[in-house]
Design a protein that fits this description.
single chain; 103 residues; mainly beta
Amino acid sequence: MCGFLLDSFEVSKRDGRKSHIIAVNLNGQILVIEVPGGNPSKAQSYIGPRLFGAGSDLTPITVSFEDCDGNGDPDLIIHIQGSDKLICFPNNGKIFVTQQQQH
């Protein structure tokens, strides 16, 4: 299992409190967990794509936050090492929503 922890990311247009973000390659399934304001009772999970191929369960993933839909809010971007595709989960002001493939 490969994981990436981005601690204390402040998501704009939410309650102004910092979220803790954890990104994991769980046996080839990408999973991102957001713990808003450090409160685990409000945790959100976002399921990314399943990776295939030899060693896919060891493929490193990282996340970043950029505005990929042009609305001014930081969106969740998943990066898969060895791929030039970015996976964007747009920020609707409360949660990150529907997965969109970016080229």
